[in-house]
Every structure is written in structure tokens, then in C-alpha cells.
Amino acid sequence: MGLLSDIWTIRNYIIVTLTPIVLLPLILLSDRQETKCAYVVILSAVFWITEALPIAVTSLLPVVIFPAIGLMSASDTSSAYINDTSMLFIGGLILAAAIEHWDIHKRIALKVLIMVGSEPVWLIFGMMLPTWFLSMWINNTATAAMMAPISNAVMKQFREVKDERGSQADQQEYESLDNRAAEYTDDECRTRSDYHELTGSNISKDEDGINKESSSVEDDVTSDLEYLRLGKALSLSVAYAANIGGVATLTGSFPNIIMKGQTDLLYERYHTTSPVTYGSFLLYGFPIAFFALLALWIWFYLFFFLCRRDQGRLGKNHGARKNIKTMLKKEYNDMGPMTFGEVAVISHLLVLAVLWITRDLGGSGGWGFLFPRGTKICRISPPALENCREDSAMGSYHTCRWWVCDCKRK
């Protein structure tokens, strides 16, 4: 009973692992398209009935398996669900949801902030760098929404240090007033001459107190302006870095994906392949995004710190810097060691990034060419079947029967 109980506990893992292997002869012993389709149908049926995988995940299996076994192309398979470019965008959103669920963005941001230090100018750089990196692989809007709370936590530490120092100053002032009141009640101060002397000293002390109070008010106003300026810098750095990172890759921003889809349609009209691939886009977009990030950081340093008369007193506030550094280390240590879910999400992110980049290297190779070309569904009517003609420029021929074109390379 113990063995059966253990097997029942891991039944889902056994079904997910063994079912594709048991059904593998269907596609190994036969080259027919019907047999390949039966493999996917039976596999999906088993997963649906047993619920070894979530039903929604099982429904997306054809998107992966059809192109892998050469049954249909990835774009045509995705079009059965939604547009293929929208499918790419949804994949990025799913990845963003996984990163947010396991707090990967928080771990990366805290680690970078601990490394760069607690100087305001370096804090801004520490917020910009992880935001820029994450927005390259997931949507920039989702990245900005995930990183904004971290910048707010940093500003909260600056504010707490200011309030703490203000309360300490008020306490010292109250203590000094109590000491002065005790001095005034001394018996030696009750003579007339001492009384006039004491009155004069009180006036001078009151004037000093007024001057000190006015100077403290000015310091508070200046300090508030500095906090406001740093808060603007941190908030804007997150927003700008997310947009800049979205320039580097196709998945970084939705307009990039729309451009890719429209380019594919345009080149498809002329029976050729679009030169815009993930790798070619990254080749042009990454240098632009990298130098734009450096230029933005330098501009923030000049505008928010160097060009100010006080040149950023927050940078000289050692108490605030120490508290922020302590807070960052505490937050990072509270997260504990990396869990299996975090390692799995980071591994999937790295593998997905490599696969996106190396799938098609702009006609010079890529792992996508290792898989057989799927059957292309022709969007033509029966009287226009003669449009499927031989294209010598592409080195391929198209044999058409009704609605299907079997595209093969010579």
C-alpha cells in the first residue's frame, strides 16, 4: 500500500512523462499528416481527462507540438487561436506574471541596489538597470508597475530618517527649555540687578532661539524640496528605463510586435521571407537602448544633482544612507534563499531569451531550420489555385490541392 500510495501521489508527473513516450510510435512509424494529428489529439485527450496538466495549458499544446513535428507552421497554428504576433505578446505577459508572482523583479532590484550603494545618484542607476533589463523580455508597462513600489520603499526610508532626526531635534529643544526654566528659579537670580541682567540675557537668548527656529524652518523647506526632487528622479527613472528597455527587443513593447506582424504580411505578398527577426531586431535595438540608458542617467545626474546649488544634501545625509543600506539588506535577507519556483522561472527566462534570439539569425542559420516545414494553409479561393506557382527565387515549389499548399524545399 505504501508503494501504491507513493505512485498515486506522483501520478500526474508519471502521466505527463510517459504518455508522449508511449504515443511516440505514431509519428515515428508513419509520415502521414493524419497520424501526426492523431498523436496530438490523443495526447491532449489524455491530459484533459486525467487533468495531469491544467486544462488551459493542455489547450495550448498544439502551438508547440504542431510546428515541432512539421504538421503546421507556428504562425498558422497561432492563427487558429489569435494572431501569431498577439500570441507572442501573450507569452511575454505570462512570463511577466510568473516573475511578479515569485518576486524575481524584487530580488534582482534589491541585489543591484545593494551592489551600487546608497548614494542618490547610484540609487537611481540601481533602479534603472534592472528595470531596463526586465523590460527587454517582458512588457514595459508591466515592468514599470513592478518596479515602482521598490522606488517608493527607498523614498520611505529617506522620509523616516528625516522624521526621526526632526523628533530628536525637538526633544533636545524641550530639554534645553526645561534647563533654562530651572536656572530662572534659582535664588541667586532674584536680586534686581540680576533680574535686569537676566532679562537682557533672555532677550538675547530669545533672539537666538528665533534665529535658530527660522534657520531650522528653512532647512526643513530645503530638505522637503530635496526629497521631492529625489522622488521625481526615482519615479521618472523607472518610467524612462522601462521604455528604453522596450526598444531593445521585439517583446519589450507591443508596437514592436505590431511592426513585426505587419512586416511579415508585407513580405508575404511578394512570396519572400521577412528580414525582421528577433535576432536582427536585437542587433540594432540593443546598442540604441544601452547608450540611451547611459545618456539618461547622465542627464538625471546633471539635472537633479549637479546643477543644483546645494548639490544634493541627501547624498551627505549619512544617517539616511546607512538606513537605506540596512533596509535593502534586511529586505533581501527576509526573502531567504532562492526557492525552486524562483530558480525555475529564472531558468525559463534565460532559456526563452536564448531561444528567441537564436531561432532565426536573419537567414544565416538558427535552430528553427532544424525542424520540418509545416503545411501552409493558403488563403485563396478554388478559382485562384494557379497562384501557387513555382518560385525560383525562393528555391521552392508549391503543389496545391484545394485549400492546402504543401511547401517543400528543392
TrEMBL record:
Keyword Transmembrane: yes
Region span, Disordered: 195-217
Gene Ontology CC annotation, any one: plasma membrane
Pfam family membership, one: Na_sulph_symp
TM stretches of this protein: 12-30, 37-69, 81-99, 108-128, 238-258, 278-306, 335-357
Record bears the keyword Membrane: yes
InterPro entries xrefs: SLC13A/DASS
Keywords of the record: Membrane, Transmembrane, Transmembrane helix
An annotated Gene Ontology molecular function: C4-dicarboxylate transmembrane transporter activity
Compartment(s) of residence: Membrane
Membrane topology: Multi-pass membrane protein
Similarity comment: Belongs to the SLC13A/DASS transporter (TC 2.A.47) family. NADC subfamily.
PANTHER family: SOLUTE CARRIER FAMILY 13 MEMBER, SOLUTE CARRIER FAMILY 13 MEMBER 2
Name listed for the protein in its UniProt record: Solute carrier family 13 member 3
Organism, as annotated: Mizuhopecten yessoensis (Japanese scallop)
